[in-house]
Amino acid sequence: MFDFSSPESSLQMLQDARRASPGGGPGISELPLDEQSEYELKCSLAYAYSVARVALNEYGEDVAMLAKAEFDRVWLALIDVDEEFKKNVISGTARPPIGAAKPYQDFAKGKTSEL
After folding, report:
1. Cα–Cα dist 111/17, whole Å
2. Which of 48, 56, 88, 111 is an S-S bond match for 94, by CB 3.0 to 4.6 Å?
3. Quick count: other Cβ atoms within 10 Å of Cβ 81?
């Protein structure tokens, strides 16, 4: 497959396709992460994971890295607003499906994180 678009454009096309995908679901909020409710963040996390998984499996490394970074932003935003989720991340019962748990745990503990 030849793809002459930028990684950012490819990611945007993938995100748009996921948002428009039939099959139901709660939809994704158009609000910035810091304005989303806990429920909206959880929905955004599901969509970000879906996009990241497809990017990792079907797109180049550059697109996959951008998708992973977006997933990270949503995961961290959820840690900031959901105390139960934060506790579960620290304890290890909530583990990210992409990447290592330690950077997320460090963030949840208020330590410097590599994310």
Report:
1. 36
2. 88
3. 16
